Amino acid sequence: MKKNIKLAETLVEALPYIKKFNSKIIVIKYGGSIGSKDFINFTRDVVLMKLLGLSPILVHGGGLEISKELEKNNIESKFINGLRVTCKKTMKIVENVLFKKINKQIVRMIIQNGGKSTGVSGNKLNMLRVKKFTNGLNGADIGRVGEITSVNKKLIKKYIKNDMIPVITPIGINQKGETFNINADHAAAKIASCLKAEKLIILTDVEGIIDNKNKLISSINKKNINKLIKDGVIQKGMVPKVKNMINALSEGVNKAHIIDGRTKNAIILEMFTDSGIGTEILL
């Protein structure tokens, strides 16, 4: 009986959030560093969100799988400012791992959990148009890494209208028809800002942003983020993550969050409970 009462209380707590976020677009980036068991729970939660009336859009990473495949092919993984250096040969492996393997796996799991889904590679159907990324690299060349110039929001809205959960692979195409790797956080942020999403949620394999005393920061603004970057507290892959989230907020996204994808029901806890989890990013 106590367990049932607790369940009822949880549902009542969730009700205002279900009403608030009904029909709202929620862009979720699922990090490639999160384990396979967590992935199964994640896809179930996304289907639940859809059934509760929200409009989730997924953008996925796949860094660990890409690095493993590159190692098999005797290609060294190199990163500059948290971004993978991508030559033509690396790009082919990136495309195969992200779309042919990971994207299809996510779509399959959503369907198995009772949802409707479609997978789209960003270099198809003009989904993600890009130019070569050069910002903040001090002249360094990281190869085929793209910065998004446009998003096919009309197509995404069509998928949503047809009750689909779009799963988008962060790969883009330039004016010459060349395929480019895109940082998944950048892709999620641009898609969210283009659609003026209610929330941008980045799932990763850490609790959120951690301070210099190894404690979770529950809420942080742009000024304090820049200070932590300067002091070296926020570093490596977390730097482009938070910068992209700040950009998304400045371009019309209502709220942005970094949460731990290893936590069971992470996005449900963030979306439908009073306390939430992880770190909220503010302007």
Structure description:
With 283 residues, this protein is of the alpha/beta class. The chain has one domain (23-282): Acetylglutamate kinase-like (Carbamate kinase, 3-Layer(aba) Sandwich), CATH 3.40.1160. Helices cover 42% and strands 23% of the residues. The protein is built from nine helices and 16 strands. The strands form five sheets. It has an eight-stranded mixed β-sheet, with helices on both faces. The protein starts with a helix and ends with a strand.
Radius of gyration: 18 Å
Can you tell me the CATH superfamily?
Acetylglutamate kinase-like
Question: What is the CATH architecture annotation?
Answer: 3-Layer(aba) Sandwich
Mean pLDDT: 91
| Strand elements, count | 16
Give the topology string: H per helix, E per strand.
HEHEHEEHEEEHEEEHEEEEHHEHE
- Tell me the name of the CATH class: Alpha Beta
Q: Helical content, roughly? A: 40-55%
- In spatial order, strands of the major sheet run 5-8-2-1-11-15-16-14
Largest sheet composition: 8 strands, mixed
Class based on secondary structure composition and strand pairing = alpha/beta
Separate helix tally: 9
Secondary structure layout:
Blueprint: H1 2-20, E1 25-30, H2 36-51, E2 55-60, H3 63-72, E3 79-80, E4 83-84, H4 88-112, E5 117-121, E6 128-132, E7 146-151, H5 153-161, E8 165-169, E9 171-173, E10 179-181, H6 184-194, E11 199-204, E12 209-210, E13 216-217, E14 219-221, H7 222-230, H8 238-250, E15 255-260, H9 266-272, E16 279-282
Parallel strand pairs: 1-2, 1-11, 2-8, 5-8, 11-15, 14-16
Antiparallel strand pairs: 3-4, 6-7, 9-10, 12-13, 15-16
Helix pairs in contact: 3-4, 6-8
